[in-house]
Amino acid sequence: MQFLPRSRIYRVAIAINVGLVDFLGRAHFVAMAAHWALAVPVPCVAVRRSLISTIRTALNNRYRVNIDAQEIAPLLKSIDRWEHIKALFQQNYPNHLLT
To answer: Tell me, what DSSP letter sits at residue 80?
Structure first.
């Protein structure tokens, strides 16, 4: 069995990631990052000071997707997920900020 060089694997991973963002759309990608940062028993990132920074950290660290902080809430609102994500964050981290 022959293995691919790391550089090729990395390029394939980047192409898959770009394709996934295109397929899901930015709003659904943000919702997926929020889910894995907040709604699972073992979150993919440690909670940050605020909801937005927690989601943005998940986007940057887990998915290597860079979305501006001020875009996160409007994107989640556009697919009717903002209130759910916000309530989940407030329930799990009542002493943290939303923005």
So the answer is: T
Q: Residue 75, Cβ neighbours under 10 Å: how many?
A: 21
The pLDDT tens digits for 45-61 are: 888 889 999 999 999 88
**How far apart are alpha carbons 99 and 85 in whole angstroms?**
12
Low-confidence ranges of the chain (pLDDT < 50): none
Name the residue type at position 65: V
Which residue in 78, 56, 52 sits closest to 67, CA to CA?
56
φ, ψ (nearest 5 deg) of residue 59:
-60, -45
Residue 97 Cα distances to 25, 33, 86, angstroms: 27, 18, 10
For the chain, the 3-state helix, strand and coil shares in percent, each to the nearest 5, are: 65, 0, 30
Tell me the whole-structure pTM to 2 decimals. 0.80
